[in-house]
Structure formats: C-alpha cells, structure tokens
Amino acid sequence: MAAKPKDKQFTHLPIPKPQLLVPLLFFSLWLISHLIFFSSSSNTTTNITLIAAEDEKCDPAIAALYIVPLPSRFNSDLLLQCHILSPYTDMCPHIANRGLGQPLSPSSSWHATHQFIAELIFHARAENHPCRTPDPSSAELFLLPFYAGLYASSQLSQPNLTLRDSLAHDFATLLPSLPTWSKSLGRDHFMVIGRTSWDFMRSPSSSSTPDFGANPLLHLPETQNISVLTVERVPWLPHNHFAIPYPSYFHPSAATELAAWRTAILSSPRTHLLAFIGGRRPPNVEKAAARARILRQCGAASTRCIRIECRPHNPSACHDPERVLSVMRHAEFCMQPPGDSFTRRSVFDAVLAGCIPVFFSEHTAYTQYVWYMPARPEEWSVFLGPDRWDRIEEELDRIPKTVVARMRERVVEMIPRVTYAHPNASWRERGFADAVDVALAELTKFVRGTVSRA
Ligand SMILES: *[C@@H]1O[C@H](CO)[C@@H](O)[C@H](O)[C@H]1NC(C)=O
Ligand SMILES: *[C@@H]1O[C@H](CO)[C@@H](O)[C@H](O)[C@H]1NC(C)=O
Ligand SMILES: *[C@@H]1O[C@H](CO)[C@@H](O)[C@H](O)[C@H]1NC(C)=O
Ligand SMILES: *[C@@H]1O[C@H](CO)[C@@H](O)[C@H](O)[C@H]1NC(C)=O
Q1: Are residues 84 and 114 located together in one domain of the fold?
Q2: How does strand 189-196 pair with strand 141-143?
Q3: Could you tell me if 335 and 298 are in contact, meaning their C-beta atoms sit under 8 angstroms apart?
Q4: Mutate which of 161, 163, 164 to test ligand 3's pocket (most atoms within 8 Å of Cβ)?
Q5: Mean pLDDT in the chain?
Q6: Does the C-beta of 450 come closer than 6 Å to ligand 3?
Q7: Do 196 and 74 fall within a single domain?
Q8: Whether residue 114 sits in one domain with residue 14
C-alpha cells in the first residue's frame, strides 16, 4: 500500500494581507496575559507547566543532542529550489522563517505554516536547543537533518523510479559510513519527516498498482535501526516510527503568550455545536466514508454546524489560518474524519482552538500521537463508530455540558506539548516544553534503555 499525497487538494496559500485587527488583538492578549501572569497566576483556569527558567540549562530529561553534519544536498540545497519542491504549490513562502512560513502580521507568533513542514521547524529548534552539543563524543542523541519530506514532494510526479529514489538511496548508503554510527549501529540516530510515512514506504510490488509518488526510504535496510519521527506512522507496523504533531499556526516564544491564548479560547463563545473544515472525497475512497456522512448532516440540514468547504479551486478558505481558527473557536466539537490518509493537520488546529476533536478512526490520533495525548481518549475527544455516523448531532448533544467543559479544559491543557515553539526563543523566555522537547525526552528514554522500542 502506498501513500496518496495529501496535498492533492492543497492549493496555493496566499500570503495574508496585513490586517490591523490581528496585531491589535494579539497585543491586547499579550497585555492581558502579562497582567494575569504577574498579578495572580494561581487564578487562571489552567496551569502552565513552568520549567525552571533561570538560564539556558539543558533539561536532565533530555540527552545531549548532536546534529550530524550532512552534505548540503540533503537539506539546504533542496530549499534553493523551493519553486519546484511541490507539484501543487510554490513552497517558497512556506520554507521562509525556518519553516514557520509567513507571519500573519509583522513580528507575530502566528504564521501561515504549511502542514508538511515539521522537518524544517524541528531542525531549527534543535539548532537552538540548550541540550545541543558541538561534541559528538559527548552526545547521546544524533539528529540526521535530511529534509526527506520536501525531497519526496519534489519527486511526487517523477515517473522514473531511479531518479525519484536516488537521494533516498544516497542517504541510506551514507548512514553506516558516518563517524557517529558505529557506537550504536544507528540506534541513537533519528530523523524527522514532515510528511506521512506512507510516502516513504512504496511497496516493492508497486509496478502494477499506483504508487502515488512514494519512495522506499523507510524500507531500506540502512534505515531500520534509526528512529523516524513522522506526522503519520503506519499504525499496524511494529516499527521504529513515532508520530509527532503536524505544525499548526501558533509559534509562541513565551509561556505568557501561551497562557493568554489559552485563557482567551476557554472563554470564547461556542455558538455552534459542531464544525467541519474539509472537502469531499470520491465515493470510492473507502477511508473517507465518514466524510460523506458528515457533509450530509452539516450544511443545509443543520444550523448547528459550521463548515468551510475545501474545493480544489477555492484556494484560500481552507488554508486561511484566521478563517480556520475563527470557525473552530466558535464550535464545541470539530469533526476529524480521515481523508487521503488517517491523520489530519486539522486535529492540531482544533486543539489550538479549544475545539474538542471528534474521531471516526482510531488511527487519526489514538494510535499515532501516544507521546502527546492523554492516555484516556475520552478525556479530550469523542470517538464515533460507524453505527453512530448518521446521528452525529444527537450523539454530541447528549454529552452533558459539564463533561464538555471538562474535556475542553483537557484539550486546552494539551496545547503547549503539541505546539512548535519559535526556534529563536530562548529557553529562559520560553519556559514551557513544546512538541520538540517532548520528542527529545521520549527519544532519550529510548537511548538510555528506560523504555524499549516496539
Ligand atoms: C493546577 O495545579 C494544581 C496544583 O498543582 C492542581 O491541584 C490543579 O488540579 C491543576 N489544575 C488543572 C486544571 O490542571
Ligand atoms: C532568528 O534570529 C536570527 C538572528 O537574529 C534571524 O536572522 C532569523 O531570521 C530569526 N529566525 C526566525 C525564524 O525568525
Ligand atoms: C531513468 O533515469 C536513469 C538515470 O538518469 C536513466 O539511466 C534511465 O534510462 C531512466 N529510465 C527510463 C525508463 O527512462
Ligand atoms: C542494525 O542493527 C543490527 C543489530 O541489532 C546490526 O546487525 C545491523 O548491521 C545494523 N544495521 C546497520 C545498517 O548498521
């Protein structure tokens, strides 16, 4: 089984026009947050995990990290050809600011971040990380900064498999020759991929079936010992793959910014019971069956559902961060049906907006983001099995308001861990563990042998 590239529907994301209201809003949030934070932090409804922030010390839960120098063809050279990195969109605006993309207003923490760009942001965060060491002999963790996702998307329409796979093979060949390799035969090395693992697992017999542009990187023997961080793992493969969040739009530098946002969305009026942001899929796409049922119930059939429809020729609405968040922060529940693959960036947009995710497959989050999500799914989400797909509104309406409020608090508590902080933020200023810190701490447990890999 090979991947269908998810950005089939992804149309050009315009650089948002500067708007006065947004900077004003964020400035006032910032101001409020400072007032709240410095006057009575114990009165806020949620807790921020503050890390001892006296200086730039490495958290003892995270091992010393070395970034393995790779030839530039594996990373920076790819960025030079950003116009041709994706057959669907010009990636140049998206790779800007180390992968955060275009800021929504000057010097804001909000960016129009592309969904498949985590590998760039992670690399930038790692470069500035207090646990980074320039000395490989003192390191326990080794990041391999290969932008494999951008490479894969640049080759999605390449029919010649020799050409399509060549850099993946080069990378695999390089691994055992790295000076850092021999100590653990690669088990302390890891790479980060901003696309789904399906895109790197072309099945060997794909000559007869469509291969959707995938290469075989993650099937090659040389990549079997390393850890692979990806936005979607293949759930049923007991493997060295771990899921990390899709990046959303908020890249704060400080815990105060985060606290202000969490306070604001907890009090946001939820005028609608449910929201769905997404497009149709052809009726024969079995994985997307729940979508058709949601679309039937959300729209003319109900005034309690808000939706943004993503159409191939409706470029902005679905990928306009302000529009997406404004819909999500006005709904109690956000529908998260599978589409081209099981997972969706939208799950992380919903968490950011304090909108309780509703899942139709356990592979959209529960079997994926185990490092990031509360162990008990019912604390922060709703799962609807196929027998309940025809009465979504009734099912959601039945959940008592007090339960809904508790779930929302749980969702809002998750925000720091699934957020990619601004890579330039100092540890001292930041004061919260973000998605990168969580991943590094989990990888540390693995290299130190306190947990074993499946
Ligand atoms: C906040 O922290 C306090 C003290 O650690 C704890 O008792 C309380 O339950 C926490 N509140 C939330 C919403 O997690
Ligand atoms: C981080 O800071 C450097 C130096 O001031 C600057 O050149 C760079 O643009 C900043 N990066 C981001 C992502 O803002
Ligand atoms: C694919 O590309 C390789 C390398 O450039 C070339 O040798 C080969 O002939 C090409 N194969 C086809 C079928 O065009
Ligand atoms: C991966 O680890 C195994 C031992 O667990 C070793 O036999 C194999 O050679 C390693 N692979 C590479 C490419 O180093």
Answers
A1: yes
A2: parallel
A3: yes
A4: 163
A5: 87
A6: no
A7: yes
A8: no
| Same-domain status, 113 and 227 | yes
Q: Ligand 1 center to residue 45 CA distance, Å?
A: 9
22 domain-assigned: yes
Q: How many domains does the chain have?
A: 2
Residue 12 has pLDDT above 70, yes or no: no
Full domain range(s) for residue 437: 65-248+421-453
Q: What is the pLDDT of residue 208?
A: 61
Establish whether residue 159 lines the binding site of ligand 3, counting it when its CB lies within 6 angstroms of any ligand atom: no
For a mutational test of ligand 4's pocket, the pick from 225, 226, 452, i.e. the residue with the most ligand atoms closer than 8 A to its C-beta, is 225
Burial of 284 (0-12, 13-18, 19+ CB in 10 A): exposed
Q: What is the pLDDT of residue 42?
A: 37
pLDDT category, 288, cuts 50, 70, 90?
confident
Task: Identify which of 301, 303, 323, 326 has the alpha carbon closest to the alpha carbon of residue 314.
Answer: 323
Q: Which of 21-35, 60-74, 231-245 tops mean pLDDT?
A: 60-74
Query: Which CATH number do you get for residue 296?
Result: 3.40.50
* Cβ of 160 less than 6 Å from ligand 3: yes
Which pLDDT score is estimated for 317? 76
Q: Which residues contact 161 (CB under 8 A, 6 or more apart)?
A: none
| Closest ligand (CA of 164) | 3
- Same domain (yes/no): 242, 331: no
Taking alpha carbons only, the member of 73, 72, 124, 84 closest to residue 101 is 124
Asked, for residue 267, whether it belongs to a domain, the answer is yes
Q: Does residue 132 sit in the same domain as residue 270?
A: no
Same domain for 354 and 272? yes
Residues 153-187: tens digit of each pLDDT: 999 999 999 999 999 999 999 999 999 999 999 99
Q: How far is CA 340 from the centre of its chain?
A: 16
Residue pair 5/199 in contact (Cβ under 8 Å)? The answer is yes
Q: Is residue 54 part of a domain?
A: no
Digit-coded pLDDT (tens) for 233-261? 999 986 799 999 999 999 999 999 999 99
Separation of CA 47 and ligand 1 centre (Å): 6
- This model's pTM is above 0.70: yes
Does the Cβ of 97 fall within 6 Å of ligand 2?
yes
Both structure tokens of 77: 């050279």
What is residue 152's predicted lDDT score, i.e. its pLDDT? 97
How many A from CA of 219 to the centre of ligand 3?
Answer: 22
Whether residue 301 is found in the same domain as residue 179: no
Give a yes or no: residue 336 inside a domain: yes
Listed in sequence order, the residues at least 6 apart from 174 whose beta carbon sits closer than 8 Å to its beta carbon are 70, 71
**How far, in Å, from the CA of 164 to the mean position of ligand 3?**
10
**For the residues 343-348, what does the mean pLDDT come to?**
97
Q: Is 19 in the pocket of ligand 1 (CB under 6 A)?
A: no
pLDDT (0 to 100) of residue 254? 95
